């Protein structure tokens, strides 16, 4: 593959968990591989587990891993945590638009004190709530190399956002903390559906009952 740093771009290929596992099995040793992008495929945590086992061995100098717009949950974060806690010099990790949630972030953040090379972390649109803001406020200051963290389009309250703003002041190298467009969790879809159903039944009762009584 030559002496230069190479990139592997496989965005929007529709790759499943099984296909990513097969890719990991067939991937040759690629010490010059610098960036891997697997956006918008739809695979889940099984694929991430396979990648986390293979990449440190076959692509030890990988510095950028982009896994945006997939279906990665907490189990995938466990695998990524273990990968980051090993001797893997990843500098940029993008997990935006997945489903890691608060529990997934809790696992991932356990690696923050073991990532001396991580500069950029993208966690936009992952269903993170104030539970994650408490966790990040406590752990981000220990991620000493992190310069950019994106948390837009999650579910943090104004208090959660302020908590992170205050935590940024204790971060040695963090220059960019993006936390725009938060959607507070106010009413669940089930509750909203029930509310609409009650309104419909009330309207039906008010319109039908007078007709029946008049008969």
TrEMBL record:
Checking Pfam families in the record gives: LRR_6
Q: Does the keyword Repeat apply?
A: yes
May I have one GO cellular component term?
perinuclear region of cytoplasm
GO BP terms: nucleocytoplasmic transport
Which controlled-vocabulary keywords does the entry list? GTPase activation, Leucine-rich repeat, Repeat
Q: Which GO terms describe its molecular function?
A: GTPase activator activity; small GTPase binding
Q: Which lineage ranks, top first, belong to the organism behind this chain?
A: Eukaryota, Sar, Alveolata, Colpodellida, Vitrellaceae
Q: Which domain of life is it from?
A: Eukaryota
Q: Which protein, by its recorded name, is this?
A: Uncharacterized protein
The reply on keyword Repeat is yes
Q: Which InterPro entries match?
A: Leu-rich_rpt (IPR001611), LRR_dom_sf (IPR032675), RanGap (IPR027038)
Organism of derivation: Vitrella brassicaformis (strain CCMP3155)
């Amino acid at each position: 593959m030559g002496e230069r740093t190479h990139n592997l771009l496989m965005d929007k290929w529709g790759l499943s968990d099984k296909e990513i596992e097969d890719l990991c099995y067939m991937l040759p040793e690629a010490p010059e591989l610098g960036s891997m992008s697997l956006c918008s495929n739809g695979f889940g945590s099984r694929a991430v587990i396979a990648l986390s086992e293979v990449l440190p061995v076959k692509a030890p100098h990988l510095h950028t891993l982009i896994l945006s717009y997939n279906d990665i949950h907490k189990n995938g974060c466990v695998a990524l945590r273990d990968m980051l806690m090993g001797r893997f010099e990843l500098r940029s990790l993008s997990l935006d638009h997945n489903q890691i949630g608060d529990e997934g972030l809790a696992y991932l953040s356990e690696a923050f004190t073991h990532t001396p090379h991580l500069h950029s972390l993208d966690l936009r649109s992952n269903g993170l709530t104030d539970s994650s803001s408490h966790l990040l406020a406590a752990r981000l200051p220990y991620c000493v190399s992190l310069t950019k963290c994106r948390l837009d389009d999650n579910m943090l309250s104004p208090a959660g956002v302020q908590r992170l703003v205050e935590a940024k002041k204790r971060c040695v190298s963090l220059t960019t903390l993006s936390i725009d467009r938060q959607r507070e969790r106010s009413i669940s879809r089930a509750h909203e559906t029930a509310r609409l159903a009650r309104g419909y039944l009330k309207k039906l009762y008010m319109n039908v009952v007078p007709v029946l009584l008049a008969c």
